[in-house]
């Protein structure tokens, strides 16, 4: 009786000449497109200019890609960044790091909020980040599904009944010759995708209940603690991303997750020490 899945889909949907559309790119784009629909709804409910979501989308797309790309080389392949810096901005754009994306997004939202918090819309850094983490969680689920289609970020061998064989996995420096790939492994991408979906639902419920009464920084704190605590734990069932991690007590993903969790704890504690006071006239209009 077959107790595992052999997973080798074609990552390409179709191509026209040299141009190809891949499942990863489609899922990546869907995360942004659906996410911005959700943000438009949030802006509408909280009486913020919905047109601002167009600007916010540009900030998010650029910061996510640049941050994730630069972060990959900074954290995992610094020698490439030093010796061949143009690799960061040239095809095939292989290698994206979620920790780098997090730094890029937080930086971009700080710049965005500096433009918006001083005017009537009052979109402060913590107001924006508390809401953007809802859609970031959803986008994270889409991206991890894209990793699953690409047979990347694979798990360690397992004898559990939901183990998956990834014949197309390309981790030669880590896994060795191709025959070592053909064993059931943890579908680590699906574990992370599911965890992202769960926190997306939790954060959306949290916002829907409190809206503008949400303690500033609370949702950002919850997001960082949930995502990066689980990321730390999931690393124990994932193969190393680069060979040098084999000699490390904690791999790079785990080391980078620790300050992210601590930052989340800081924002969560801070949020309940500084509760939001909503003027009565504004409270009566929110959600109507």
UniProtKB/TrEMBL annotation:
Pathway: Protein modification; lipoprotein biosynthesis (diacylglyceryl transfer). GO terms for cellular component: plasma membrane. It is an enzyme of class 2 (transferase). Its main location: membrane. Signal peptide: none annotated. GO terms for molecular function: phosphatidylglycerol-prolipoprotein diacylglyceryl transferase activity. The chain crosses the membrane at residues 23-43, 55-76, 88-112, 124-143, 188-207, 219-237, 249-269. The keyword Metal-binding does not apply. GO terms for biological process: lipoprotein biosynthetic process. Catalyzes the transfer of the diacylglyceryl group from phosphatidylglycerol to the sulfhydryl group of the N-terminal cysteine of a prolipoprotein, the first step in the formation of mature lipoproteins. This is Phosphatidylglycerol--prolipoprotein diacylglyceryl transferase. The lineage of its organism: Bacteria, Pseudomonadati, Bacteroidota, Cytophagia, Cytophagales.
């Amino acid at each position: 009786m077959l107790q595992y899945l052999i997973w080798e889909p074609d990552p390409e949907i179709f191509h026209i000449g040299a141009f190809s559309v891949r499942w990863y790119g489609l899922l990546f784009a869907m995360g942004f497109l659906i996410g911005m629909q959700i943000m438009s709804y949030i802006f509408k409910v909280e009486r913020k200019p919905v047109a601002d979501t167009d600007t916010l989308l540009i900030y998010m797309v650029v910061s996510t890609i640049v941050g994730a790309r630069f972060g990959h080389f900074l954290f995992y392949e610094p020698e490439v960044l030093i010796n061949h810096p143009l690799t960061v901005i040239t095809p095939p754009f292989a290698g994206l790091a979620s920790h780098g994306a997090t730094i890029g997004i937080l930086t971009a939202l700080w710049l965005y909020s500096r433009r918006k918090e001083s005017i009537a819309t009052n979109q402060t850094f913590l107001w924006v980040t508390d809401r953007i983490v809802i859609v970031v969680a959803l986008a994270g689920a889409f991206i991890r599904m894209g990793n699953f289609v690409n047979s990347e970020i694979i798990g360690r061998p397992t004898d559990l009944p939901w183990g998956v064989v990834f014949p197309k996995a390309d981790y030669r420096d880590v896994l060795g010759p191709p025959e070592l790939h053909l064993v059931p492994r943890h579908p680590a991408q699906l574990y992370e995708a599911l965890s992202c979906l769960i926190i997306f639902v939790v954060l959306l419920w949290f916002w829907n209940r409190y809206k503008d009464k949400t303690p500033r920084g609370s949702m950002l704190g919850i997001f960082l603690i949930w995502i990066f605590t689980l990321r730390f734990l999931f690393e124990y069932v994932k193969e190393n991303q680069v060979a040098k991690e084999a000699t490390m007590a904690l791999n790079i993903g785990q080391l980078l997750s620790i300050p992210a969790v601590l930052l989340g704890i800081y924002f969560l504690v801070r949020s309940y020490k500084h509760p939001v006071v909503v003027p009565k006239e504004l409270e009566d209009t929110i959600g109507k």
